[in-house]
Predict the structure.
Amino acid sequence: MGLWWFLASEIPVFGGLIASYIVVRLGSSGWFEASSHLNFSLALVNTFVLLTSSLTMVLAFAAVEDRNPKRLQLNLLLTLLLGLTFLAIKGFEYAGEIAHGFTPGAGIFWSFYYGMTGLHALHVLGGIVVNMILLVAALRETLKPNEHRVELAGLYWHFVDIVWIFLFPLLYLT
Amino acid sequence: MGEGPLAKKMRIFSTDHKVIAKQYLSVGLFWAVIGALTAYMIRWQLAYPETEVPGWGFIAPDFYNMLVTMHGTIMVFFVAMPILLAAFGNFLIPLMIGAQDMAFPRLNRLSFWVFALASFILLTSFFVPGGAASAGWTGYPPLSAKVAYTGVNWGLNLWLLALALEFASFLMGGVNFLTTAINLRAPGMTFFRLPLLVWMELTAAVIFMLSVGPLIAGAVMLLMDRVIGTTFYLPEGGGEPLLWQHLFWFFGHPEVYVILLPGLGLVLEVIPAFSRKPIFGYRAIIYSTIAAGMLSFVVWAHHQFISGMDPRLAMPFSITTIIISVPFALIVFAMIATLWRGSISFSTPMLFAVGTLAVFIAGGLTGIFNGSAAVDIYIHDTYFIVAHFHFTLFSAVFFAGFAGLYFWFPKMFGRMMNETLGKIHFWLTFVFFNAVFIPMHFVGLGGMMRRIANPMQYEFLQPLQPLNILITVAAIVLLLSQLLFVINFFWSLRAGKKAESNPWQANTLEWSTLSPPPHANFEKIPTVYRSPYEYSLPEAPQDWLPQDLPLTSPAAARR
Amino acid sequence: MAEAHRPNYFLVWIWLVFLVIVSITASFVLPKSAALLLIFLAALIKAVLVLLNYMHLKFERPVLYALVIIPLLIVAVLIFALFPDFVFHG
């Protein structure tokens, strides 16, 4: 219940950013031009990466329910790797954009792009750290008394995925 | 649930909610002193511009801006929130619901550490080159977005960081409050038997958690504008300064109710205890509180009537603002009805509680003027507004806060405070508070603008200067009177009369355990039989009836 | 225990992938406004799928739905209130 409250309070954080993005964008012109410079294919790959990581995360939770430590470790590891992949691709994207001169100061679209994806990426990083701690505990077999933490970490991870589900079309598809 | 080994060595590692509450209280009181000092310097500069402030020296206009900014920031975020929400909430919620501690004690400890870090960062912001933030507690861009406009670089960045950390700390606290109250109530403690203070703290927590998001987003955006060079709020990059205003006030307005509701809650506990009467309209108060909470999310643009926002927004926001006065009026009437024909004893907590009521009503009335866009066009950004919010905030934070402190001091510290000193403190505070802020309305109506360092440079303001001097003199006396509280507080800690469990003969659960309560709060978890306000019940042998006393027990018959 | 109630996580994943493909196709194939509508509808469905199935919301107590819906309503209020200032420049 506590974690749901936390997520409920995170919704207006991203919501605030997204709301601002939507209204500013609807009110100005020339954004399609800017967004066309984004690397669509990389972001698409990232979308699949994150979606799949949600799958592995919930499978990890299922493994806890089924009392299957090996599957738990495997799925936590996969989630972790997919999360890292997401960040790596994002970093690669950023590097490419900055090399082309599209820094955060390049215009209002870029401010929002870096702001929204940056905040999202920070949350992904946080989730990765949490999952790493859980994985280590699972490998050391010390997770037993705190198994519900996998569910909590899962809730957070799915939330981060949902944010991306909205960010992707907002930034890349429109 | 025992304390860890570290906690036995150092209080800073304790997870006991009562210890954490006192830690919040200490930090809050510390900041109150700093906030008071900024108020002193501001008032001196206004009354005697360009002279040396006794004890400090000359104040440059930039420094004045910083004082005004920090006064607001400190009082709202580092005095009101920690004392009303964190200290009283943390201390009383588990006790009042009959629990041993919060649902997440370690999260509680972490939340204090984060808050302490935020405090430390804000403190350091005074000492960095360029000084502390000086763009107003509301931090409007473009002034706040570009270093060159204020000359403050790290000060403002640290300000944003301190606020972000403080928000994180209170989000953690909010999660704790809500989960605790929902899951850890003692047997028999239904939602409608909860003391009103708990309802108020919970509503405040919900409001805070749902409203702070957009400001966190906005603050991140502002920080990015300052540090990375984005242009969210800078028109030359396609940004929009008004966006900040909307994001800030979307949180800012619910935030004042986050502060107000616990204050009202404290008063709602004190009044029945000293009128020996049940609360009038318990459920109505709860429903009004929830209604006010919901309404608070749709009134924010009344802070922006003259900001240049779309004028068509003025009407809907005026309407909602006027409507929100209705639930609060109801709560105020309920308080008065509770007092009516009660057998009232004017102890120090009761004096402050009734004082809160009087001052809050006055503040609420001026709020209705402000809420009408047509009137606000004239008085916005004048001292009329300053007077309005000091009436409402001061009543909620200081009058109610003192009521709470005097009332629960015996429970928190096991000793009684000195009644005589308390009463003198009240009267001095009440008289001089009014002496400061009533004239301020007239100064504002006369056209004196906010945030100007030297009113004398405007010819049309010069006739108002005697009022400004009066206000300053009264303010200095007001501030000095608070020393009585400080003396009383510290003296009583050492040498006050030892307190019994229930010195005020009140009903709520915290009074059924020792003063101060042991680590696990209760010897065994109480069972609750009735609502908290059963005073002067004809069937009962005395004029109070604790929540956890079964009516048929021999103890009840004997006592 | 929860065996009988467990959603088919793989099936959900297939749906999610399918919806992503639908969105992308729409953005290339359909005219602007129809595409926008479809894309956001797809995003909404994806979010709901994750919420209900991966986050098990449909097996939790009803009050949690309120915890999700109310903040979203608040964000909606913010968006609509900002419209006059940003979208309908006076």
